[in-house]
Design brief:
The complex is a heterodimer of chains A (262) and B (261).
Chain A: H1 11-35, H2 41-51, H3 56-80, H4 87-125, H5 128-134, H6 139-177, H7 182-192, H8 195-221, H9 227-258
Helix pairs in contact in A: 2-6, 3-4, 3-6, 4-6, 4-7, 4-8, 4-9, 6-8, 8-9
Chain B: H1 2-6, E1 20-31, E2 34-45, E3 49-54, H2 60-67, E4 75-80, E5 83-84, H3 90-98, E6 100-103, H4 115-126, H5 132-145, H6 161-173, E7 179-183, H7 191-208, E8 211-215, H8 219-225, E9 228-233, E10 236-241, H9 243-248, H10 252-258
Parallel strand pairs in B: 3-8, 3-9, 6-7, 7-8
Antiparallel strand pairs in B: 1-2, 1-4, 4-5, 9-10
Helix pairs in contact in B: 4-6, 7-8
Classes of the chains: A mainly alpha (262), B alpha/beta (261).
Bound molecules: adenosine-5'-triphosphate and magnesium ion (MG).
Amino acid sequence: MAEEKKSILPKGLRDFYIEAGETTQFAGRFFREILFPPYEFREVIRQSYEIGYKSLPLVGITAFIIGLVLTLQSRPTLVSFGAEAWLPAMVGVSIIREIGPVITALICAGKIGSSIGAELGSMKVTEQIDAMEVSGTNPFKYIVVSRIVSTTLMIPVLVVIGDAISLYGAFLAVKVKGAVSFTLFFHQVFEALNFGDALPSVIKSFFFGFAIGLIGCYKGYHSKKGTEGVGRSANSAVVVSSLLIFIIDLMAVQITEFFGLI
Amino acid sequence: MKEDVAYHVMAPEQKKYGDPIIEISHLVKSFGDNHVLRDYSLTIRKGENVVVLGKSGCGKSVLIKCIVGLIPYDKGSLKVFGNEISEIQQQELDELRAKIGFVFQSSALYDSMTVRENLEFALRRHGKGKSRTEVNALVEETLDNVGLLHAVEVMPAELSGGMRKRIGLARSLILKPEIMLYDEPTTGLDPITAKEISNLMLKMQLKYNTSSIIISHDMHCAQLTANRLSVMIDGINYAEGTFDELRKMNDPKVHAFFEIL
Ligand SMILES: Nc1ncnc2c1ncn2[C@@H]1O[C@H](COP(=O)(O)OP(=O)(O)OP(=O)(O)O)[C@@H](O)[C@H]1O
Ligand SMILES: [Mg+2]
């Protein structure tokens, strides 16, 4: 419990700093616990299935629609410049660099972040976490570490699959309006892309995944008593992790620029 | 009431109890301004059942959570098997916890696991080297003890409150612990099931010589299972003694607990 000292900061700001500090501590504990055995491999695999495989339909559908719509919307502008031939290249770069990772991560923040927050919250409230602890299992390892590892590994996979589906959606949108073959479309896309586009976006996806898992687990693990607390955990897990995704995105663009990859 | 009890084994008279297993002395625990345990002392010996009585919210659950190290205490001493709980390392604490069965007031069943997996969870951690058939036999034997053998593949959400309670009990009994901490094991059960559970607690005591702390408002359960009772009032061990000793006591605060009988 934080001491109720007189503070020069307004309450909201102070709470923000306290929470940021606690989240950092939580992350620190994650890195400490992940280093030492026992490792909960079975739980990681089970969670990866829950988190990765079960999000696939949702990620696939959104990715497809985004690819399609983005292409349809960009087309008139490019046509008015007479640059219609650039459409595959432009859409490809936007999807791979930015839209694919961010949309996928946001969808996952909504789906996975909230479910982790609610699940851990209700486990906390109904004393299941305590029960695990007295049965000699480290609940942090079993519950938190396995989930954060799973999201960190699964979000990049989902992003790559989402990118592919998105590009296919874009291809269909181009094809509807004009004759373009599958090979020609993807030839143009990959011509425009290089390593410096793909690598940073995959790397930042790992961070997106980490943020989603971390915030979901933190919010759930520190859930307040009562069903209201569980709802609030789920809700703020989504809000905070979505915000964090944009912040990471902003930092990622600065870093890639610094390394001259843009 | 007298004849009602006569059908059953009563807890053995307080005599041949062994060494102290749990020694609580001058325990203090506050949550901010909420002083829950003020100066609580109690000793539980080998093979003894001690019932802790107390009003709702007086800190009974907090007390037994301190014993398993779920809640850190502020002051005083709490020794289990001679180990001071606040001083031992995590690994020793885990080894100690393997010898302690804890029945949560809220059952605390794992929602995402079937009843079988709930029971196996602790076995996976502590019952190393047991074969599949041994584990199955143990699970079925334990479930049979609480009369819920048919519910073995059911998810906790499909169980009634009383059934959850009994599964929670079975889950803590499966490791045949040396110490049992029951947090209101019979609350919310019908009188018949409550009596069955009380008898089960006695059976565990006689068969495995377990030492138990039983938190209960259920005076019938207390009468049946207790070798000794402790009345917790305002965070201290206000009165202590056998059921009959406390019943005869003149103190109005103690007497209040016995009025319903
Ligand atoms: N984790 C906690 N944080 C803050 N206060 C707590 C916590 N756990 C318990 N308390 C407080 O400690 C007091 C005692 O709670 P406890 O759960 O031990 O009561 P109890 O004697 O078990 O009551 P009941 O018979 O209703 O279960 C209550 O006032 C409660 O608000
Ligand atoms: Mg209680």
